[in-house]
Amino acid sequence: MKLEKITDKAGRKYHDACGAAHGLDLIGERWALLVIRELMMGPRRFGDLRKDLHGISANVLTQRLEGLEASGIVTRRKLPPPASVQVYELTPWGYEIKPVFMVLGGWAARSPRHDPTLPISAVSIMQSFETMFDPALAGDAAMTVGFVFGDEPFVVQIEKGRITTRRGATDAADVVLTTQPPLVAACVYGKVPPAAFEADGLMTLTGDRAVFDGFAGFFNLPEKAPV
User: Fold this and answer.
1) Least C-beta-crowded within 10 Å: which of 26, 169, 183, 214?
2) What is the domain class of 122-216 according to CATH?
């Protein structure tokens, strides 16, 4: 069998048959993996992606989306009226990277240089819940927790030792936090009581406060790796 040599016009590929090396060919450019992260919970508009990717320029975001689209990881489409706006979303194959992303996040959280106080997006905090959830701590607990970040509602459901996260209305949630993602991270991973932020008008908690207290107990950052 004759192998076809594929020429990379950009000249920035690894030229290595290893699957991991080709994976880096596909997603190794700066910002590419974070663009994928922001699409992990459904379609997004260009402006929404740029807003949640702190520090990325419009030009670089355009380049990354074009590259991911050319690789078959991302697709774009126009929403029907009345929205009639263009959105980007992962292809079915693109979604398959989710377990890799979660393992990478869990592994990197053990780095002594990981700083959990840096900015974090709404999608990122939701993904972190799936990564850091400890079913042994949850036991047979069943609860639905809602989060509202600006005009974006999310729901986290825990039942039978399993966790699911999704975008969607929080009407049926046992407790709802309306705030910003970094403050949720502080409450869940830093164990800061929500009341500390409520007092300053930075957070609103409605519903069963005890449910959220139990929820926060199911998540812990891993121990740091030895230097």
Assistant:
1) 169
2) alpha beta
Show the 3-state SS of 35-71.
HHHHCCCCCECHHHHHHHCCCCCHHHHHHHHHHHHHC
Give the span between the Cα atoms of 187 and 212, in whole angstroms: 10
| Spans of the chain below 70 pLDDT | 1-11
Q: Is domain 19-96 given the CATH code 1.10.10.10 in the classification? A: yes
Note the pLDDT tens digit of each residue in 147-175.
999 999 999 999 999 999 999 999 999 99
* Identical topology for domains 19-96 and 122-216: no
Any idea which residue has 């207290």 for tokens? 213
Stated as kind and residue range, the H or E segment containing 155 is strand 152-159
The two three-digit tokens of residue 22, written as one number: 């080709």
The pTM assigned to this predicted structure is 0.89
